Amino acid sequence: MCVTTDFVIVCDEMIKGETQRETLNTAIKRYGKLLVSLTEQQVKSFAGNMFELTGKNGRFIAMSETAFSALSTEQKQLLQSKVALEAFNIPTIELAGGSVRCMLAGIHLAKQKVRLAS
């Protein structure tokens, strides 16, 4: 699962029980996000391990090349309609079962003024 500013990217078909799927879908809509449904095969290709970042040129979603290749053309177009996509070649990390999200940490701090010592 990946939650971004605009999207929730999840394999909802793997959620057992219609009630639980509906609860998730309702919450996604309530927060004004678009649902991008992944298949189980896409999850196995690390497509759920994306991570939204902000760089000099704005927001982008980081993912592995494996994950990017697993996305359908329609999914890529939907994501790219709101944010840039960046794919990284990380086969060694994926061999161990990790992906891009495992290599990053989110920092959600408010900007602060820096005071220099006099």
Question: Which key terms come to mind for this protein?
Answer:
single chain; 118 residues; alpha/beta; 5 helices; globular
Largest sheet: 3 strands, mixed
Q: Which structural category do the helix and sheet elements fall into?
A: alpha/beta
Number of domains: 1
Low-confidence stretches: none
Count of helix runs: 5
Number of strands: 6
**Portion of residues in helices?**
25-40%
Give the strand order, joined by hyphens, for the main sheet: 1-2-3
How much of the sequence lies in strands comes to: 15-25%
Question: Could you give the topology of this structure?
Answer:
Blueprint: E1 2-3, E2 7-10, H1 18-30, E3 34-37, H2 40-44, E4 51-55, E5 58-64, H3 65-70, H4 73-80, E6 84-88, H5 91-95
Parallel strand pairs: 2-3, 5-6
Antiparallel strand pairs: 1-2, 4-5
